[in-house]
Specification:
about 20% strand; 11 strands; 2 domains; D-Maltodextrin-Binding Protein, domain 2
């Protein structure tokens, strides 16, 4: 048997355990051969703590409930199997990969204004985020992504807990981050958040974090609790400071190339299932965030309640600067800041 490479995966000629076997997508009449779609995630293949796997499982469940399980099959690729996220977003844009589950920040490379979702301390919590999106913030975001990247937001969820700082040394306030090399997403917006918080912000691909921590290239990283747990980053850093600096949206992102090829009746069913899967994923995320913190404590991680007010004060000027640079985001920010729960 020939070895499976990323190239063969992208051609759709290999098979993996989760989902149906790959085949070239046959997209057309709903009664034609099944629509086979590739779904990518950088997260661990963890059915409880991996947000990509959870979203995938919920989507499959909703498709089956709608009677579409035999017409649409989802092939899931976790753990960066199809490449680092920066490569995958371009493949989704081109329709080489149909969908991906990821946060919003990676899309700012293609549509800079989309980075508004990752401004530090913009959202108060996840319920407020959902209410703000439902109150009008989602539509302009979706429009700008479709125009700038040819990608649809098929469902809005959120990451499993706020982004906080895991470090090899305790972090109680901004002074404790001085000189610390903290991994951030390769996002200008998030890198600026950590810089303002006092860290030596270090953008790095997700798949390189663990070895960089082990090698001492990094002093820590910022991420949500379930990701810290599922990816075992706690093995290399034992202090988790709940800075909660970003309540990061999570989305199911669908290529417009794929979208345009799907039979409209089948497409409507897919989008309805995606919206329901997003709701299920939001509920799951709220449950497992606290659960993951408890598990981290059991594994020897010291969980710190830091001076969030001090961090927030340092980061708040970022929002005004971002809106000045991207005035089209002002209505979005206004909706978010005026939304209460």
């Amino acid at each position: 048997m020939r070895p499976i490479t990323r190239r063969t995966l992208l051609r759709g000629t290999a098979s993996v355990p989760i989902g149906a076997g790959l085949a070239p997508a046959i997209i057309g009449r709903a009664n034609a051969a099944p629509l086979r779609m590739k779904l990518s995630s950088s997260q661990a293949n963890d059915a409880r703590y991996g947000n990509g796997r959870v979203f995938h499982d919920n989507l499959v469940k909703q498709l089956q409930s709608a009677g579409l399980g035999s017409q649409i099959t989802i092939q899931f690729f976790p753990d960066n199997q199809l490449g680092q996220e920066i490569d995958v977003v371009n493949s989704v844009k081109l329709g080489v990969i149909d969908m991906m589950v990821t946060g919003t920040s990676i899309w700012a490379d293609l549509v800079p204004a989309f980075g508004v979702c990752d401004l530090g301390y913009l959202f108060k919590d996840f319920p407020q985020q959902t209410k703000a999106l439902d109150s009008g913030a989602a539509k302009p975001l979706e429009d700008m992504l479709l125009k700038g990247a040819k990608v649809h937001v098929a469902g809005w969820a959120y990451n499993f807990g706020a982004r906080s700082v895991l470090c090899k040394t305790p972090v109680h306030g901004p002074e404790d981050l001085a000189g610390k090399k903290i991994r951030t997403l390769p996002s200008t917006t998030i890198t600026e958040v950590l810089r303002l918080m006092g860290a030596a912000a270090t953008p790095l691909a997700f798949g390189e974090i663990y070895t960089a921590l082990q090698a001492g290239v990094l002093d820590g990283l910022e991420h949500d609790p379930p990701t810290i747990l599922a990816s075992k980053f706690f093995e290399a850093a034992k202090n988790y400071s709940l800075t909660e600096h970003i309540y990061s949206p999570l989305g199911l992102f669908l290529s417009d190339v794929t979208f345009q090829r799907i039979d409209p009746k089948l497409r409507d069913g897919l989008l309805e299932a995606a919206a329901k899967a997003a709701s299920d994923t939001r509920a799951h995320g709220l449950t497992v965030a606290g659960e993951a913190i408890d598990e981290l404590k059991k594994k020897g991680v010291t969980v710190i309640d830091p001076d969030r007010a001090a961090f927030r004060q340092r980061v708040l000027p970022q929002t005004d600067a971002f809106v000045k640079a991207h005035p089209e985001t002002k209505p979005i920010v206004d909706i978010i800041q005026s939304t209460s729960v």
